[in-house]
């Protein structure tokens, strides 16, 4: 017999409020968002182990600040993306690491090119070009491109994540696309010339 | 999306990433997060103790961390048990305070979900202990803080505070769960080991649980689909099994792990509504049978930096099932619960209706020094019951607060002062300004000690005297903090603007009033003016 039944009143606790005091609700909230945040990190970093490390960092930071968060679950998701964006950007700013990723991506591409000829190899080669192009963007631009094209967030949602206006996001996205165009326009991607 | 963006999106869609979540990482992180969550909650709880609002003698007393902790100990000990199976039954938030064990408990539940009849065997070893809680609280008033003596008493209280008895849950015919306790007879000098057998049929929800020690059956509870069977301990040390037809509201329990198996009852001790001991250390160990376990050591660090009183939860690494739980204080085990066996069987050793035990009073050859008492909590008692059962003068509002709609009185074992009782009166309000009135001998002793400390420091305790002779203490300490505890103990999420009052009756007993919101001056005056001794209450 629950307190609700005992008292005869129906209380519908807000899930976000509940998650602040109830480990069960907190766990359910975490499980609802883990996949999205991990994928976002993986799409930004192209590397599982680092993506998992950053995902851990994101959620641990979330716990530290969760009591001060005041919003609904959608805002919570955007808040997580913001923490993730900051964490990934911070990570990428470490130049040595960034160079290492670029080298890794490029090596993968070269190896595939050398092995040559199969459709799979070609696909890997093309991916390496795109990934390399993405990594040449500033971390902030890369975040916007990733959220827009991989995570399918709306411009307004990205604006909330990065803490700016929708107009600014549109401009940044446009600039990022222009840079990407320059990097990959001459490449034959997936059997076609890409003109962005 | 413009054509360029669309084209880029198509390009992106063709890309492959190593982005499939690895659930081993997800689950491992979940454990870390739950531990971090528990730490944060504890820190938050600590920090909530600060908004004392008004300067005064209480500030002097309560700024002293030991005193705050002792006060917390007393208040939690007093009201913490109320939530045990009374208010929390069927609440859909079963995860407990030791979040690191959440998965282990889920695994326990999974054991019962197997097809067919599941048979679980545990061993419970109970060590002799003396409850000196009330005496210690009284002594606290005679000590000067922060002397060695004060610390010593404080440490002992902390030892008493932790639940040093094992709750045994049983299902009743109305679907409620009753909390019982294993009790050693006074003066018992030796430890006793109890064998706890449970059978559960997941297809029908039928179950049987029988506990025995030295050949004596000391507890039994079962459900056969129509009736619930429950043993009662008799005064002569025997038990009698009583049957009761299930009521219309009864439903077979969704989670048998709540009252069967190794985490039964103990699960409630982990509940955040009860005590939240942070995990202080996580180590690996190997049990005598070669089982590798992860050991979670959970308890509160004492003022002197020691971990005197704690739980050891030993969780099997192979399947995350709890293998053993130990409660230790001052280096000595108080209770050990150990998993012995889990197996699938064709039929239980006892009938679902406990026919082997029913129809007769089980005359044990010699009265067992170990009994299972059902005196932990009784909900929905009357005002008259409260007045009659109490060992002290109890009080009640002559008329329910006019913004509340329902009153529930719960009779609870006063663990610091067992077998004496404490009483919690809960008034539920649709505007959420629920009111709780709590009173017990431990409350009286604790606040008497506080008064003594205050007066010994040359201060005077200010009180507002009402026409009916009741006095409200002015500057009554960290109200936000203790009202938080009181509200939580009854399963109410405390509001930020909660409020509370310490009221002294004309006969000198203490009443704690916690409100989940604010009262106007008129409402407060009305509330205090309507207080009367419970024995004088007239049913309207």
Assembly state of the chains shown: heterodimer
Q: Note poorly predicted spans of chain B.
A: 46-100, 268-275
Tell the overall outline of chain A: globular
SS-based class of chain B: alpha+beta
Largest interface: A-B, 55 and 55 residues
Number of helices of chain B: 12
Q: Which architecture of one domain in chain A does the CATH hierarchy give at level 2?
A: Orthogonal Bundle
CATH class of the largest domain in chain B: Mainly Beta
Mean pLDDT of chain B: 75
Largest sheet of chain A: 2 strands, antiparallel
CATH topology of the largest domain in chain B: outer membrane lipoprotein receptor (LolB), chain A
Set out the fold topology.
The complex is a heterodimer of chains A (196) and B (540).
Chain A: H1 3-7, H2 15-21, H3 23-45, H4 48-65, H5 73-93, H6 95-115, H7 119-135, H8 139-149, H9 155-162, H10 166-184, E1 188-189, E2 192-193
Antiparallel strand pairs in A: 1-2
Helix pairs in contact in A: 2-3, 3-4, 3-5, 4-5, 5-9, 6-7, 7-10, 8-10, 9-10
Chain B: H1 3-14, H2 23-47, H3 57-62, H4 65-79, H5 102-112, E1 117-126, H6 133-140, H7 148-161, E2 167-171, E3 177-184, E4 192-201, E5 207-213, E6 216-223, E7 227-233, E8 239-245, H8 266-270, E9 279-286, E10 292-299, E11 309-316, E12 322-329, E13 332-345, E14 361-362, E15 370-373, E16 377-378, H9 383-389, E17 395-397, E18 406-413, E19 421-428, E20 435-440, H10 441-456, E21 463-465, E22 471-473, H11 479-489, E23 499-504, E24 510-515, H12 521-529, E25 531-533
Antiparallel strand pairs in B: 1-4, 1-13, 2-3, 3-15, 4-5, 5-6, 6-7, 7-8, 8-14, 9-10, 10-11, 11-12, 12-13, 16-18, 17-25, 18-19, 19-20, 20-24, 21-22, 22-23, 23-24
Helix pairs in contact in B: 4-7, 4-11, 6-7, 6-10
């Amino acid at each position: 017999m629950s307190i609700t039944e005992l008292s005869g009143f129906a209380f519908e606790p807000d899930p976000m409020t509940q998650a602040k005091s109830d480990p069960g609700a907190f766990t359910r909230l975490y499980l609802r968002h883990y996949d999205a945040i991990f994928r976002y990190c993986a799409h930004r970093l192209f590397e599982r182990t680092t993506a998992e490390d950053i995902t851990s960092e994101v959620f641990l930071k979330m716990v530290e600040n969760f009591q001060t968060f005041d919003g609904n679950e959608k805002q919570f998701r955007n808040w997580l993306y913001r923490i993730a964006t900051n964490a990934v950007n911070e990570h990428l700013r470490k130049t040595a690491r960034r160079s290492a990723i670029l080298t890794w991506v490029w090596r993968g591409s070269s190896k595939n090119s050398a092995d040559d000829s199969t459709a799979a190899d070609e696909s890997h080669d093309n991916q390496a070009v795109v990934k390399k192009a993405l990594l040449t963007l500033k971390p902030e631009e890369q975040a916007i491109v990733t959220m827009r094209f991989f995570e399918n967030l709306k411009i307004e949602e990205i604006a909330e994540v990065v803490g700016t206006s929708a107009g600014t996001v549109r401009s940044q996205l446009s600039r990022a696309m222009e840079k990407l165009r320059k990097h990959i326009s001459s490449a034959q991607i997936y059997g076609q010339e890409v003109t962005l | 999306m413009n054509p360029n963006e669309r084209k880029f999106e198509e390009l992106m869609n063709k890309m492959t990433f190593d982005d499939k979540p690895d659930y081993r990482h997800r689950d491992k992180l979940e454990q870390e997060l739950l531990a971090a969550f528990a730490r944060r909650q504890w820190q938050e709880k600590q920090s909530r103790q600060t908004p004392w609002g008004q300067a005064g003698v209480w500030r002097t007393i309560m700024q002293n961390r030991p005193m705050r902790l002792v006060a917390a100990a007393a208040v939690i000990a007093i009201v913490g048990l109320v939530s045990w199976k009374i208010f929390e039954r069927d609440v859909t938030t079963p995860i407990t305070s030791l979040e690191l064990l959440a998965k282990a408990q889920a695994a326990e539940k999974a054991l019962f979900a197997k097809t067919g009849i599941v048979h679980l065997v545990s061993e419970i070893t109970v060590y002799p202990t003396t409850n000196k809680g009330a005496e210690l609280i009284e002594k606290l008033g005679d000590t000067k803080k922060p002397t060695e003596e004060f610390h010593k008493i404080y440490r002992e209280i902390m030892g008493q505070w932790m639940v040093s008895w094992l709750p045994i849950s049983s299902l009743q015919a109305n679907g409620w769960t009753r909390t019982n306790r294993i009790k050693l007879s006074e003066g018992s000098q030796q430890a006793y080991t109890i064998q706890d057998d449970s059978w559960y049929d997941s297809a029908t929800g039928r179950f049987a649980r029988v506990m025995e020690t030295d050949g004596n059956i000391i507890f039994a509870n079962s459900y056969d689909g129509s009736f619930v069977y429950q043993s009662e301990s008799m005064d002569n040390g025997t038990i009698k099994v009583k049957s009761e037809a299930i009521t219309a509201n009864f439903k077979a329990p969704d989670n048998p792990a709540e009252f069967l198996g190794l985490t039964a009852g103990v699960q409630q001790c982990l509940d955040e509504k009860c005590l939240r001991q942070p995990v202080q250390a996580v180590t690996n160990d190997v049990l005598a049978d070669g089982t590798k376990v992860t050991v979670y050591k959970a308890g509160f660090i004492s003022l002197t930096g020691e971990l005197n009183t704690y739980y050891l939860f030993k969780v099997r690494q192979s399947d995350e099932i709890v293998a053993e739980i130990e409660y230790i204080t001052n280096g000595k085990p108080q209770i050990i619960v150990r998993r012995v066996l889990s197996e699938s069987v064709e039929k239980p050793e006892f009938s679902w209706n406990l026919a082997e035990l029913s129809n007769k009073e089980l005359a044990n050859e010699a009265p067992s020094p170990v009994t299972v008492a059902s005196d932990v909590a009784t909900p929905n008692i009357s005002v008259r019951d409260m007045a009659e059962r109490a060992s002290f003068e109890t009080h009640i509002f002559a008329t329910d607060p006019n913004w509340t709609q329902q009153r529930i009185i719960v009779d609870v074992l006063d663990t610091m002062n067992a077998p004496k009782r404490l009483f919690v009166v809960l008034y539920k309000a649709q505007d959420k300004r629920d009111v709780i009135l709590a009173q017990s001998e431990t409350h009286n002793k604790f606040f008497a000690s506080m008064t003594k400390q205050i007066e010994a420091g040359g201060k005077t305790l200010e009180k507002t005297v009402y026409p009916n002779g009741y006095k409200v203490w002015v500057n009554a300490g960290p109200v936000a903090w203790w009202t938080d505890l009181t509200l939580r103990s009854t399963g109410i999420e405390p509001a930020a603007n909660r409020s509370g009052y310490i009221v002294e009756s004309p006969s000198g007993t203490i009443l704690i009033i916690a409100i989940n919101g604010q009262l106007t001056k008129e409402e407060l005056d009305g509330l205090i003016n309507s207080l009367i001794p419970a024995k004088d209450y007239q049913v309207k």
